[in-house]
Write a structure and sequence with these properties.
Layout (H helix, E strand, L loop, with lengths): L5 H11 L9 E3 L3 H10 L4 E3 L2 H6 L5 E4 L6 H10 L3 E5 L6 H14 L3 E4 L6 H11 L6 E9 L11 H4 L3 H17 L5 E9 L10 E8 L4 E7 L7 E8 L2 E6 L8 E3 L16 E3 L5 H4 L2 H14 L7 H20 L3 E2 L18 E2 L4 E8 L5 E7 L5 E6 L1
Parallel strand pairs: 1-2, 3-4, 4-5, 6-9
Antiparallel strand pairs: 6-10, 7-8, 7-14, 8-9, 10-11, 12-13, 15-16, 16-17, 17-18
Helix pairs in contact: 4-5, 5-11, 8-11
The structure holds nicotinamide-adenine-dinucleotide.
């Protein structure tokens, strides 16, 4: 385990309570005190302040990169060189160039690679993806994904050279990959339009952004990210299909709502802003955020020599979309997504589909009215004329 911060702790705790046979055997952090403390608390036999030593350790078969964004490439390159499987947290790189170098390195070395995009593995998301793949909501037209909170917990996130950007690279990576999963990972993201601004924090990067990603089949992925949002962490997805809709709320309404007049001294949930009044605690954070299913998929795939749901290739596509979002924020135009390596489909069918009514008409809309009658709005195929009919 490389890193002993927020995500290093979540990952280790999820792993140790998960399949039961996966164990962190060596942990690296640059601080000697922190790494010793981390190892002791979690029964990890060895700890070090030397990253290479942790990677080269005889018992390390899989390296988990839980370090700040600017260290992902170094850690991945060293793991590939050592011939070890490597799982990297999000975002894969600070830019698509960085991500592509990592992808090429692991593939050249022939090592297993997994992109730790936990939010596509939440039980709700997996069930929704199943509903989409079995056709329950028709063709996916629009996926709106939001992650907003009051801002991250460590200094490096706020520095462009370390993080690679602001809320887009930090949170947008999740939203973009969630939308890709629903729209279809084999559908090419074509172009991006993005607004972003620095509204409340005195930083160089954006603390609020909204973006649209247009896919080749006409579907739209919408990301909404903010480090300026108040009220905790808002994680929501909306999936709109031609035949149905799915709404997901992952954090502020997970089924437990609690009011305390006195306030609580207990931990409430990640990024919770208050400990009194109405609270939205999360019973099982690792489960709700997808860590449990994510590591199960990764380690099963390693053992079965198969491909996990999320690989470095996915991380690279996400980085390419983010690069275009940053370009669009500056240019205020749609910006093409530059994907020198594309492994999905080409020339896909559009999601657009119109309903036939009869030989001469298409059905625009059908609605039951308060008087019990049904109104039909029709469009004449030749003239384009729009008319209405009322039936009992
Ligand atoms: N849901 C998720 O998937 C999720 C959530 C949070 C963070 N992350 C990602 O995990 C990574 C780490 O984020 P975090 O929240 O754990 O950060 P953090 O600040 O809590 O922890 C970072 C760790 O890296 C160490 N570190 C910091 N600077 C270093 C340096 N220059 N050299 C060596 N070590 C250094 C810190 O000591 C700490 O151990 C980031 O890439 C972040 O985007 C993912």
């Amino acid at each position: 385990m490389l890193g002993t911060g927020l995500i290093g702790s979540f990952y280790t705790d999820s792993l140790h309570s998960n399949r039961g046979r996966d164990q962190v055997r060596v942990v690296y952090s640059r601080s000697a005190d922190r790494v010793r403390d981390f190892a002791e608390k979690r029964n990890i036999p060895r700890f070090t302040t030397d990253m290479q030593e942790a990677i080269d350790d005889d018992e390390t078969d899989t390296v988990i990169v839980a370090l700040p964004n600017h260290l992902h490439e170094q850690a991945v390159m060293a793991s590939a060189e050592a011939g070890k499987a490597v799982l990297c947290t999000k975002p894969l790189g600070r830019t698509a160039d960085e991500a592509l170098r990592m992808l090429e390195a692991v593939e050249k070395a022939g090592v297993f690679n997994g992109y730790l995009e936990d939010l596509v593995y939440t039980p709700k998301t997996l069930k929704s993806l199943q509903a989409v793949s079995d056709g329950s909501v028709g063709k996916i037209l629009w996926v709106r994904s939001r992650e907003t909170h009051p801002g991250p917990h460590s200094d490096w996130f706020w520095k462009k050279e370390f993080a690679g950007g602001g809320a887009i690279v930090d949170l947008g990576c999740h939203c973009i990959e969630i939308a890709r999963n629903f729209i279809g990972k084999d559908i090419r993201p074509v172009e991006v339009m993005c607004w972003g601004d620095t509204q409340v924090h005195p930083i160089e990067t954006e603390d609020h952004a909204i973006g649209l990603v247009r896919y080749e089949n006409g579907a739209i992925g919408q990301f909404e990210v903010s480090w300026a949002f108040r009220g905790g962490m808002d994680l929501r997805d909306e999936i709109v299909g031609t035949e149905g809709t799915i709404w997901l709320n992952h954090w502020l309404r997970t089924g437990m709502e609690m009011y305390t007049a006195t306030g609580t001294s207990s931990y409430v949930a990640e990024k919770a802003e208050s400990t009194g009044g109405w609270l939205f605690p999360v019973g099982d954070e690792s489960g709700a955020l997808g860590y449990v299913e994510m590591f199960t998929d990764m380690f099963n795939a390693i053992e079965n020599k198969s491909t996990p749901m999320e690989t470095f290739y996915d991380g690279y596509v996400v980085n390419a979309i983010i690069d275009s979002a940053y370009l669009s924020m500056q240019s205020k135009q749609w910006e093409l997504v530059n994907l020198p390596v594309w492994r999905g489909r080409e020339n896909v069918e559009s999601v657009k589909s119109f309903r036939e009514f009869d030989d001469q008409h298409l059905l625009v809309k059908e609605e039951k009215m308060p008087n019990g009658k049904t109104k039909l709005i029709l469009r004449h195929k030749q003239s384009g004329d729009i008319s209405e009919r009322i039936s009992d």
